[in-house]
């Protein structure tokens, strides 16, 4: 059988791709960036909750404020600003549905 060598290259020589950059699998050491005070950040994560949980609390509080102030009916907000709030509220609603489906 004869080998044929083509002068062009159809695939890269190196097919390595980092899957989880900044992760180390020796006891799951994760570095997601610099913190001004790593000790406070670590304690907040352990005692308050994950970033997702904290963002969820903020989203629920903002949803409440938007509803109580009737911001979607406000004449002081432009249509673009109201649309921004609707997108946000849609995200909060979608996350609530996902949580409910896992309950």
Strands side by side in the biggest sheet: 1-2
Number of strands: 2
What is the overall pLDDT average? 83
- Uncertain segments: none
How many H/I helical runs?
A: 3
Q: Please give the largest β-sheet.
A: 2 strands, antiparallel
Strand content: under 5%
From the alpha-carbon coordinates, what is the Rg to the nearest angstrom? 24 Å
What is the structural class?
Answer: mainly alpha
**Backbone shape:** elongated
**SSE order, one letter for each helix or strand:** EEHHH
Helix content: 40-55%
Distance between the termini: 62 Å
Number of domains: 1
List the helices and strands and how they pair.
Layout (H helix, E strand, L loop, with lengths): L22 E2 L4 E2 L7 H10 L3 H18 L10 H23 L2
Antiparallel strand pairs: 1-2
Helix pairs in contact: 2-3
Written account of the structure:
- By secondary structure, the protein is mainly alpha-helical.
- It has one domain (23-101).
- Helices cover 50% and strands 4% of the residues.
- It has helices at residues 38-47, 51-68, 79-101, and strands at 23-24, 29-30.
- It has a two-stranded antiparallel sheet with strand order 1-2.
- The radius of gyration is 24 Å and the shape is elongated.
What characteristics describe this protein?
mainly alpha, 103 residues
How would you concisely characterize the structure shown here?
Helix content is 50%, strand content 4%. With 103 residues, it is mainly α.
């Amino acid at each position: 059988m004869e080998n044929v060598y083509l002068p062009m290259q159809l695939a890269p020589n190196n097919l390595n791709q980092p899957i989880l950059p900044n992760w180390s699998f020796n006891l799951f050491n994760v570095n997601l960036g610099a913190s001004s005070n790593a000790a406070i950040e670590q304690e907040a994560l352990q005692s308050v909750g994950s970033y997702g949980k904290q963002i969820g609390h903020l989203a629920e509080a903002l949803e409440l404020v938007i509803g109580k102030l009737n911001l979607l009916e406000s004449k002081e907000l432009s249509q673009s600003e109201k649309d921004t709030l609707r997108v946000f509220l849609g995200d909060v609603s979608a996350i609530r549905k996902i949580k409910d489906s896992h309950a």
